[in-house]
Every structure is written in C-alpha cells, then in structure tokens.
Amino acid sequence: MPETTNASKELIFGYSQQELIDVAVDIGINLLIALVILIIGLRIAKFASKMVKKVLEKRGSDKGLISFMGSLVNGLVKVLTVVTVFSQIGIEMTSFVAILGAAGLAIGMAFSGTLSNFAGGVIILLLKPFKVGDYIEAQGESGTVTEIQIFHTILLTPDNKTIILPNGPVSTGNVTNYSTQDTRRVDFTFGFGYGEDLKLAKETVLEIVKSHPKVMQDPEPFVRLGSLGDSSVNLTVRIWSKKEDYWDIHFYVNEKVYEKFEEVEGLSIPFPQMDVHVDQEK
Questions:
Q1: What is the C-alpha end-to-end distance of the chain, expressed in Å?
Q2: Residue 16: which residues within 8 A CB-CB, separation 6 or more?
Q3: Of these four, 53, 87, 155, 262, which has the most CB atoms within 10 Å of its CB?
Q4: How far is Cα 55 from Cα 60, in angstroms, rounded to an integer?
C-alpha cells in the first residue's frame, strides 16, 4: 500500500517528474532557438533592406523606388521571420493559415485602408506623377517629396515640417506637381486709383518687371488692364521664369511696385473705400 502512494506522488498530471523536466527543457530550448531566430531575422531584414537600396542606387534607380523596395524587402523578411519563429515554438502554420482564411473577410475589411495605401504606392511608382525631390501639392498639403514608402509619402514643407500622406488618397486624388516643367508663370494683380494715368501705370510696372535679370523675355511680359474693381483699376501682370526663380521674382516685383507707386507722381495704391450718401427728408 505505501509503495502505491509513493508512486502516485511521483506523477503530476499523469506525467512523471523526469518527463516534465524533459518537456520543460525541450520548450526552453525551442524558445531560446526562436528568440535567436527572431534576433537574427530582424538583423537580416535590416541588412537586406540596405543591400537592396545600395544595388538600386548603383543602377541609378529612382529615389522613390529605392525607398519603396527597401521598405518592402524589410517587411517581407520580418514576416518570414515571424512565421519561422511560430513554427519553431510548435505553432502549426497550417492551422494558423486556416484561421486566417476563415477570418479573411473581416481582416480584409479592417485593413482595406492599409491595402489601398500599398496599392497606391505601387501606382505612384509605376505612373510616376511625382518623384523624390519634386515640390507637390496633394490632399491640401504642399512640400518637397523626401520619401515614397510602402504605405506613405513623406513631404518636407518650406518651414521644415514633416507631413506624412497615405498613398491611397494621394494616388486617387488631385496632385499638383510644381517641378515637372522647367518654367513657371508668375501672376500679379496691381491696382491704382480711378482717374490716374493708365499708360503711366503700365509703363511703370513693365519697367520694374524687365529690371529683374531672371525674368524671361520670351514669352515677353504681359501687362494689361484686367478689371475695374470697386475701389481700384486693376492691372493683370503675367511673366515667365525658371521654376527655381519663381519666389525671388515674386517678392522682388511686389516690393518694387509698392515703392514705385508711392514715388511716382500721379500713381497710388488705393485702399477699399465706400461713399455713403445720406438724403435728409424735410
């Protein structure tokens, strides 16, 4: 009778102590191997991403493609690493895939935005509405494209802010690319007072425009009477420049017109005003 009691004490959940120790050792070894695989896999992902970028850079590929492919390779290697880790610790991937398949519809709906962003990134790289280095306006934001990643496009604004735009809406929405053409038109509207000399105003503005060395003379500058406003006669001014000279000319012409209209006799810049006539009844 005592021998039976001692034997039962050696069993835990139907297993002997030695069997439990063996199982614990096996689990520990598998967990250790899985941890090593995870660490090595993450390093390989980083290394593979860098190698892909270097190869594409040597081939002179587009910077957007380089960034996209680097992110893609990094993500794929990480996924393979996680799958390998699951297999090592004893999780059957066939069962895992079956679970994912059963929940496929729900997952697809949950990640529809992410998938559309991925597709948008592919479309951007294939159709190339813009590339790294272009100054664009999209989704109500504007800036210089610094990266085109798998899911996002990153812009840097002139005041040094980073803007992250999802690729899906960018690829399907309106995009204004200011860097595609070599030249840009600079438009102005300058007003002067009613009763003042139209010819003098046109000659003054034209003289200022032509004084800037970066203003293109072909097409020649356009200065015409554009509209008759409530408080001023408005000149429409259109001049052409290299895209990199746009803002330099924009600020220069505005400043010079203001100074000249204050200096030249017979010209002035009017401010909005309203005449009110009051009739008194007797």
A1: 131
A2: 10
A3: 155
A4: 9
Higher pLDDT, 137 or 64: 137
Determine the Cα–Cα distance for residues 173 and 175; give it in Å rounded to an integer.
6
User: How many of the other CB atoms lie within 10 Å of CB of 65?
Assistant: 19
At 257, which amino acid appears? V
- CB–CB of 103/37 below 8 Å? no
Pairing of strands 15-16, 135-138: unpaired
What is the token pair recorded at 35?
């941890």
Phi-psi region of 241 (alpha: psi -120 to 50; beta: other; left: phi over 0): beta
Average pLDDT over every residue of 190-214? 92
Choice between 92 and 268, residue whose per-residue pLDDT is larger:
268
Of the CA atoms within 13 Å of residue 107, those in its CB half-sphere come to: 7
Q: Which amino acid, one-letter code, is at 50? A: K
Angle between helix axes 93-102 and 63-88 (nearest 10 degrees) is 120
Region 246-256: mean pLDDT is 94
Domains of the chain: 15-102 (1.10.287.1260), 129-177 (2.30.30.60), 183-263 (3.30.70.100)
d(CA 154, CA 141) in angstroms, rounded, equals: 11
Q: Which of 7-21, 41-55, 82-96 has the highest mean pLDDT?
A: 41-55
Contact between residue 235 and residue 189 where contact means Cβ atoms under 8 Å apart: yes
- Tell me the H-state helices in 59-177: 63-88, 93-102, 104-110, 112-127, 167-172
Cα separation of 70 and 81, whole Å? 17
User: Dihedral through CA 49, CA 50, CA 56, CA 60, nearest 10?
Assistant: 140
What pTM did the predictor assign? Answer: 0.57
- 159-180 burial, b if ≥16 CB within 10 A, otherwise e? eeeebebbbbebbeeebebebe
